[in-house]
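Notes from the 1:1 (GR / supervisor)

We went over the backlog. Supervisor wanted to see one worked example end to end before approving the batch request, so GR pasted a single chain during the call. The sequence is below; no edits were made to it. Supervisor asked that the structure be written out right there so they could see what the output format looks like.
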Amino acid sequence: MNYRIKDSDIEMLRKAGVSEDDIKHCVRVAEKALEIAQRTGAKLNVELIGRYALFHDLGKAKTHAIEHGRIGAELGSQLGLPKEITDIMEKHIRGGLTEDEARELGLPVKDYTLKTLEERIVIYADRLVDIITEGIVDIKGDELEAERRFKEILREYPKYGKNEITLNRYLGYHREIQGMMKG
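Structure output shown during the call:
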């Protein structure tokens, strides 16, 4: 794990107009994603994980609506970010939508599903950071409590599980990644 979050990338978020609160969130997601990546023991591209996570909410410089993924990908392209990073920015909404879900949500119709483990780790980290930091769920112990209670939290708090399809998608990522951590 040689990758460290670059001040120049954080400054890029700032210059794009991302709020300090959203930057703080993105940095936390990057840190959590890198931690999870290391705990899996898998051979991963940690620079991509760190940068995926750091830039995933770039679109929040313009809107916090569901379109922030698409808008973030467009902004990222304009800023010269690699396509593999802008792709996750667009696909991270609800953990990776199918074409049917995109249609229902009024997004451009295409496959937004997450194909790589790197992408799934970032999305899992994003959900965990929301649970840990938003103050909606009482996390009394260490941050690992959010992982231990993940299934319960997503079922109990619709804000995190969204709907049955999204809930099952996040639970699948949880099973996959936790399974890797347990060896």
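Supervisor's comment: The chain is about 65% helix and 0% strand.
Batch request approved.
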